[in-house]
Amino acid sequence: MGFLSDDELAQAADPQVETGVGPAPRPWPTDPRLDVGLLAEGDRRNVVDKYRYWSVEAIVADLDRSRRPLRIAIQNWEHDFNIGSIVRTANAFNVAAVHIIGRRRWNRRGAMVTDRYLHVQHHPDVADFADFLQAGDYRPIGVDNLPGSVPLETAKLPERSCLVFGSEGPGLTEEMVALCDSLVAISQYGSTRSINAGAAAAIAMYHWSLQWN
Question: Are 203 and 109 within one domain?
């Protein structure tokens, strides 16, 4: 879930339309954060204007100065296409890290390369993820409409939360549910049993942000 930038809208309407900015006029500034290749060829990436022509490393270093303590975890058992969109939203909220649990390879299509600007950590299983949480004093909060879950809109989320999401369809595994400190669900008023996992993740991150902005 997420709004397209003006560049993305233009490119979607006409694939031949160039987005971003072209080559930088000379003389080039001597800022060490700038990438010479981008200065010479142009910067067509989906980044905010502040980061035009910056190297990936410089962008990550700058984002690290303002990372929020929120972490996002995703169970990756089915190569779910929603993982990419969750990662993209996590980048938008500048979370501390995204944790992929299960398969190391995940569907990056929806991320639109935003994972380059995030810290993405892999855990082979729930036990390894649990060890990480304990060492970092993070509280896992499962986001799923399961019995015992409380409405997200009434929940007070810890600042050092790790919001945990399951695969589209099956949701969180029983092992992960047992690990979570609590479960929250997004209240719904229509006929569908659940909403898209990527949309749920965006709502949950926004809810945390309202409490800890």
Answer: yes
Tell me which amino acid residue 68 is: R
| Mean pLDDT of the 108-129 span | 96
Closest C-alpha among 178, 167, 140 to residue 78: 167
| Residues 47-70 pLDDT 10s | 999 999 999 999 999 999 999 999
Query: Are both 132 and 109 inside the same structural domain?
Result: yes
Name the pTM for this structure: 0.89
Residue 42 CB partners (closer than 8 Å, separation 6+): 18, 20, 21, 22, 23
In the chain, the number of structural domains is: 2
